[in-house]
Amino acid sequence: MSQKRLLNKVIVITGGAGLLGQEHAKAVLSEGATAILLDIDFDGLVHASIDLVAEYGTKVVLRQCDITNDEAVSKISLEINSSVGVPCGLVNNAAINPSVEKNTATFSRVESINYEEWKLHLDVGLYGAFLCSKVFGAAMIENGISGSIVNISSDHGIMAPNQSLYRVSGKPDSEQPVKPVMYSVVKHGLIGLSRYFATYWATSGIRTNSLCPGGVLNGQPEEFLQRFNQLVPLGRPANPNEYHGALLFLLSDDSTYMTGSTLVIDGGRSIW
């Protein structure tokens, strides 16, 4: 039941066109906030947000933005401040996430990864989070707002991927798909970024924490789900809406004494 913990607040969510980006938006909208959804793919963002706009109307604000571009992020921040209001919350959700429900052809092995591929993942997942934190956090401070930044890490931010999940029968080891190393580096890095900003802005009223979701049910092949479920004490992946409560806790005044922390919600997978 909604408690309107974010009533009349403005929350920025990066990677808004993605599955979790949309779920994050549903969470904050249900508590009375205005959700600013940013994504580099504006057409995809508009398409993904049709139901949200239909239900919440002007509370849903869609903007195209390349979060790896300093000028673009600064410009969008100024526009949001003047047209909607200064955000008090930021959800750094954008990332490149190779997943089995999309295409395991993007599951690059270490031996095949080049600098351009490495840089792209880190630019989006780490530099984008840093840049948005810097720009939107500075706006909060300049306007005397006690804000909250939530970096969406992963259970892969606290443990290595179990590559047996992605194994394809009949392929030699040298050709087996694996969760790319960049994903782990980015998700570990986001936890470090949270801790750094938590101390850097400790006296400025800005809290920064990491949320580490586990796997999310999203049309994965049955064979993959059977393997995955055996690795999770609760025996299943999360439903997409099962992170709402955790996000709202971190963004709202329910967690005013929490900063630099890592909240892991993975069905128990990381304890095995």
Structure description:
By secondary structure, the chain is an alpha/beta fold. It is 38% helix and 13% strand. A 7-stranded parallel beta sheet has the order 3-2-1-4-5-6-7, with helices on both faces. The radius of gyration is 18 Å and the shape is globular. The protein starts with 9 loop residues before the first strand and ends in a 7-residue tail after the last strand. The mean pLDDT is 95.
Question: What's the topology here?
Answer:
Elements: E1 10-14, H1 19-30, E2 34-39, H2 42-48, H3 50-56, E3 60-64, H4 70-83, E4 89-92, H5 115-142, E5 148-152, H6 181-200, E6 207-213, H7 222-229, H8 244-251, E7 262-265
Parallel strand pairs: 1-2, 1-4, 2-3, 4-5, 5-6, 6-7
Helix pairs in contact: 1-8, 4-5, 5-6
Summarize the structure.
The chain is 38% helix and 13% strand. With 272 residues, it is α/β, with parallel strands linked by helices.
Q: In order across it, which strands form the biggest sheet?
A: 3-2-1-4-5-6-7
Strand-pairing-aware structural class: alpha/beta
In CATH, the homologous superfamily of the domain at 10-97 and 121-157 and 181-215 and 242-264 goes by the name NAD(P)-binding Rossmann-like Domain
- Strand fraction equals 5-15%
- What is the class of the domain at 10-97 and 121-157 and 181-215 and 242-264 in the CATH system? Alpha Beta
Using only C-alpha atoms, the radius of gyration works out to 18 Å
Proper CATH architecture of the domain at 10-97 and 121-157 and 181-215 and 242-264 = 3-Layer(aba) Sandwich
Q: Which fold name is given in CATH as the topology of the domain at 10-97 and 121-157 and 181-215 and 242-264?
A: Rossmann fold
Unreliable residue runs: none
Report how far apart the termini are. 33 Å
Number of DSSP strand runs: 7
- The gross shape turns out to be globular
- Tell me, rounded to a whole number, the average pLDDT: 95
Number of H/I helices:
8
Main sheet attributes: strand count, strand direction, barrel closure: 7 strands, parallel
Order of helices and strands: EHEHHEHEHEHEHHE
Q: Helix fraction?
A: 25-40%
